[in-house]
């Protein structure tokens, strides 16, 4: 399957595995790349030295293209970028910040740059900054989200209407049917996050993976909008946040309640009650823990089946 995205990255299928915190290490990224997609390392939860180790291990585990997702708010971002350049990583996805800051620097080193956005306004800014492609992520997605709460169904055609560069859809995509729908709406490829959390290769805690599989429709909700909007599974911590709102909590109160390292505590260390459990709405459609290569295969099989079915209409 060749299109703008497969040609841009040199991959077989237009499927990108999201670079998620506490989930996207070298095992997951290399498995997805070996299966024909594009695996991404999630640098947001890695110290610079840890990222370097994951890049080295990923290179040993695959000879296919892979990349790194870098949140622009990362405190030691200069060190991350230095490692990425030194290790000759060829693809970088940036998010949560101004794409102008690093795009030119990376491109001068021969690196393909993609930026993640949640609105048409930010998509246009990213295009103006010179990125090679855009990920437009609807607010169905897990983890941190845009403030506009635009759904993938609306966001993808809205962004497509305004930009000229390749477009990758994200948010609520865990099946081949959803992949086809996103591409009918105007996307050239898809970024899949939550589905890959429920894989043996994801570095997330097994209890978190099982919680994702057990989730039903409606078990996630967007919260903490005053700090940074984030979609969470409803556990004790989530209920504590809701209670704080009910009691008129200030922004400072919410910061104190959130504390530090709560996402690590939940998703990586396995505290299902006090931890922050970031996952997308589509967790309600994820019913098993499946190897990453099989997920890629299932996505493409269902995509092709759905494509054949709609030709009858």
Write the layout of secondary structure elements.
Blueprint lengths: L3 H6 L5 E3 L8 H9 L4 E4 L5 H14 L4 E6 L5 H10 L4 E5 L7 H6 L3 E6 L2 H10 L3 E5 L5 E2 L7 H9 L6 E4 L5 H9 L4 E4 L1 H4 L8 H9 L5 E4 L6 E4 L2 H11 L4 H8 L3 H7 L23 H19 L3
Parallel strand pairs: 1-9, 2-3, 3-4, 4-5, 5-6, 6-8, 8-9
Antiparallel strand pairs: 7-11, 10-11
Protein name: Nitronate monooxygenase
Pfam families: NMO
Organism: Flagellimonas halotolerans
**Biggest pleated sheet:** 8 strands, parallel
For the secondary structure, the number of strands is 11
Tell me, briefly, the overall form.
Answer: globular
Order of helices and strands: HEHEHEHEHEHEEHEHEHHEEHHHH
Q: What is the beta-strand fraction? A: 15-25%
Number of helices: 14
What is the arithmetic mean of pLDDT?
Answer: 96
> Helicity, in percent?
40-55%
Radius of gyration: 18 Å
Question: Which structural class best describes the helix and strand composition?
Answer: alpha/beta
What is the straight-line distance between the termini?
23 Å
Strand order within the widest sheet?
1-9-8-6-5-4-3-2
Task: List low-confidence stretches.
Answer: none
């Amino acid at each position: 399957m060749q299109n703008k995205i497969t040609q841009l990255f040199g991959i077989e299928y237009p499927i990108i595995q999201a670079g998620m915190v506490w989930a996207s290490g070298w095992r997951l990224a290399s498995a997805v790349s070996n299966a024909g997609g594009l695996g991404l390392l999630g640098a947001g939860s890695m110290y610079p030295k840890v990222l370097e180790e994951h890049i080295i291990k990923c290179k040993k585990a695959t000879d296919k293209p892979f990349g790194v997702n870098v949140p622009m708010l990362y405190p030691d971002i200069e060190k991350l970028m230095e490692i990425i350049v030194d290790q000759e990583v060829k693809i970088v996805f940036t998010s949560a910040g101004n794409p102008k800051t690093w795009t030119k620097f990376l491109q001068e080193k021969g690196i393909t740059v993609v930026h993640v956005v949640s609105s048409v306004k930010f998509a246009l800014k990213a295009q103006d900054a010179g990125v090679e492609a855009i990920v437009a992520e609807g607010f169905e997605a897990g983890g941190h989200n845009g403030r506009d709460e635009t759904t993938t169904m609306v966001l993808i055609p809205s962004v497509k209407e305004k930009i000229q560069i390749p477009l990758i859809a994200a948010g609520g995509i865990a099946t081949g049917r959803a992949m086809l729908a996103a591409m009918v709406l105007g996307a050239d490829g898809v970024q899949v996050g939550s589905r890959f959390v429920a894989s043996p290769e994801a570095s997330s805690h097994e209890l978190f993976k099982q919680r994702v599989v057990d989730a039903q429709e409606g078990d996630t909700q967007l919260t903490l909008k005053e700090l940074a909007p984030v979609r969470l599974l409803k556990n004790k911590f989530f209920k504590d946040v809701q209670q704080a709102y009910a009691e008129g909590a200030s922004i400072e109160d919410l910061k104190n309640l959130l504390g530090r390292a709560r996402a690590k505590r939940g998703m990586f260390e396995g505290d299902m009650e006090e931890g922050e459990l970031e996952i997308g709405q589509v967790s309600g459609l994820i019913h098993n823990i499946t190897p990453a290569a099989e997920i890629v295969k299932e996505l493409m099989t269902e995509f092709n089946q759905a494509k054949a079915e709609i030709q009858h209409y």
